[in-house]
Design brief:
Shape: globular
Number of helices: 6
Distance between the termini: 12 Å
CATH topology: Growth Hormone, Chain: A
Mean pLDDT: 86
Order of helices and strands: HHHHHH
Low-confidence stretches: none
Number of domains: 1
Helix content: over 70%
CATH architecture: Up-down Bundle
CATH class: Mainly Alpha
Number of strands: 0
Structural class: mainly alpha
């Protein structure tokens, strides 16, 4: 196995790290419109699960049809996540303003708006696992091992992101700076994926 083969699985730790940091940051930011209660938490967690599920199906479908471009598709997904993150807080400001998707006095209207605006990035996040699994399995040829290994790496990164955000980032950096740093990490992951694609 070439050294470049190991780069993409390693990036999946940081992809999971960023995803959970975004979830925590976006949930805190949108709480002003949805309310700091069980409803707002349920909406954010639910849309992450739905988006990741849709993205997983989409990523697997694209990966099967474009086998030579899987690492490039992975790069595009990470680029899209980072680009959305950079504009997310400004977008949320518009959404919670009067007349925006979440600027209504109706709770259900705000909940639906929050669901829609978080669906796009979560679909992109969901695409990454099947794409990377297909890439990894080309070398390993053991789908169970491939899925298990990558899911462990990603989940470990997500857990690390939760801990670092809760006990360090929120104490030292504003929300906008945290999101910007995570977006830069997504862009770096995309650059590594493009490098691997070009090496192939």
């Amino acid at each position: 196995m070439t050294k470049s083969f190991y780069l993409l699985p390693a990036t999946f730790f940081f992809s999971g790290f960023c995803a959970l940091v975004y979830q925590i940051c976006w949930q805190r930011y949108l709480a002003a419109a949805l309310g700091v209660d069980i409803d707002s938490t349920t909406i954010v967690v639910s849309v992450f699960m739905v988006g990741i599920g849709i993205g997983g199906a989409l990523g697997g479908w694209l990966g099967d049809r474009l086998p030579r471009h899987r690492s490039l598709l992975y790069a595009v997904s990470e680029l899209a996540i980072g680009a959305y993150a950079l504009s997310s807080l400004a977008f949320f400001d518009w959404a919670v303003a009067p007349g925006g998707w979440m600027g209504s006095s109706e709770q259900w209207h705000n909940a639906a708006g929050g669901f829609v605006i978080l669906l796009i990035p979560t679909v992109m996040m969901g695409m990454t696992l099947p794409l990377l699994t297909l890439i990894f399995n080309q070398k390993v040829a053991n789908i169970g091992y491939s899925v298990g290994t990558l899911y462990f790496i990603n989940t470990f990164g997500a857990a690390a992101g939760t801990l670092v955000t809760t006990f360090f980032l929120f104490d030292h950096l504003p929300l906008s700076r945290i999101v910007t740093i995570m977006a830069a990490v997504n862009f770096l992951i995309a650059a590594i994926a493009i490098y691997v694609f070009r090496k192939k």
